[in-house]
Amino acid sequence: MKNIVFKAFLPLLMIAFFTGCKTVKTVKPTTPVAKVPSKTEELMSTVKKQQFQFSNLYVKMNADLNMKGNDVSSKIELKMVRDSIIQLSVQPMFGVEIFRLALTKDSVKLIDRLNKRYAVESYTQMKNENAVVFNFYNLQSLLVNRIFFPGEKTVSEALYDRFHLTSKGTTSELSVKDASGVQYVFKADAQGKLLSSIMSMTKNLSTLQWIYSDFHTQGNQLFPSIMNVSYTHNGTTAVKAQLNYAKISPNTILNLSFSIPEKYKRVSLMDILRQYSGMK
Questions:
Q1: Rounded (10°) CA dihedral 197, 174, 194, 105
Q2: Quick one: which of 280, 196, 208 has its CA closest to 238?
Q3: How far from 185 is each of 152, 207, 209, CA to CA, in Å?
Q4: For the chain, what is the radius of gyration of the CA atoms?
Q5: Is 80 exceeded by the pLDDT of residue 236?
Q6: Residue 155's closest CA among 197, 93, 106, 121?
Q7: Which one, of 239, 240, 236, 234, lies nearest residue 205 by Cα?
Q8: Nearest of 26, 57, 108, 93 to residue 272 by alpha carbon
Q9: How far apart are CA 126 and CA 240, in angstroms?
């Protein structure tokens, strides 16, 4: 697979993700149904007002992952410092970590404790094959239910006219295409809840779909407790996962250590992904 968009997500999807019990209040639908915004500026403003606000975040979760017909479950810890670092610890049995993944604004680090090896790569290295503009901030947005503009840190008002608005009944879609040809489609309801983010590349017939549901209140903010993720290539679903955020703790103290044992062997990120995904 020769696309940085999907390389960026595969460590998350292939090494097991999130599922867990819910301990927060369910948001009940309200009536009457609100009117769907008819202008891009209006919809964007509504969506951005609903965005979850935090400086850092700690999440406990488990994963139900299906890859090529094989089911995997695991506990996961997600730690995030907004606009700085995303760290995942994969603990499939008895709280024992087998993988640790850290993504910063310019690099990816992955420890594979099962095989005593690690990978450290910059996004520049990964982008050598294709000039795709998807970046760290865009990935961060996917994980916390935010709309984004490809390659940008935030969606400024100056970028609003780059989106195309389509209204469909009680929902609307905002679509935009980046310089490499990747199509991004964001679906939102009239209240401004972001319901899905979909990225498609026609050149290699690949699609990454991220669907948000089961919105709950966290303090006075809405957040989806379930995320369904799927990656499709050539019409076949290669990876799908149901991700349930079980415990969400914003603005708490985080331990973000990333110590690599001296005896571990350094390999490429793709070497690790190939083994666990069957990629060629």
A1: 60
A2: 208
A3: 16, 11, 10
A4: 18
A5: yes
A6: 197
A7: 234
A8: 108
A9: 23
Note whether 172 and 187 are within 8 A (CB). Answer: yes
Residue of 101, 98, 167 whose CA lies nearest to 139: 101
- Distance CA(244)–CA(61), nearest Å, equals 6
Question: How far, CA to CA in Å, does 79 sit from each of 13, 71, 90, 140, 247?
Answer: 16, 25, 12, 11, 12
Q: Give the whole-angstrom CA distance, residue 258 versus residue 262.
A: 13
Strands 70-81 and 194-201 turn out to be: unpaired
Per-residue pLDDT of 120-154, as tens digits, reads 998 776 655 445 577 889 999 999 999 999 999 99
Cβ-based burial of 195 (10 A; exposed 0-12, middle 13-18, buried ≥19): middle
Kindly give the residue spans of alpha helices, DSSP state H, lying in the chain.
4-14, 40-49, 123-126, 136-143, 269-277
Q: Tell me what pLDDT residue 132 has.
A: 58
pTM of structure: 0.84
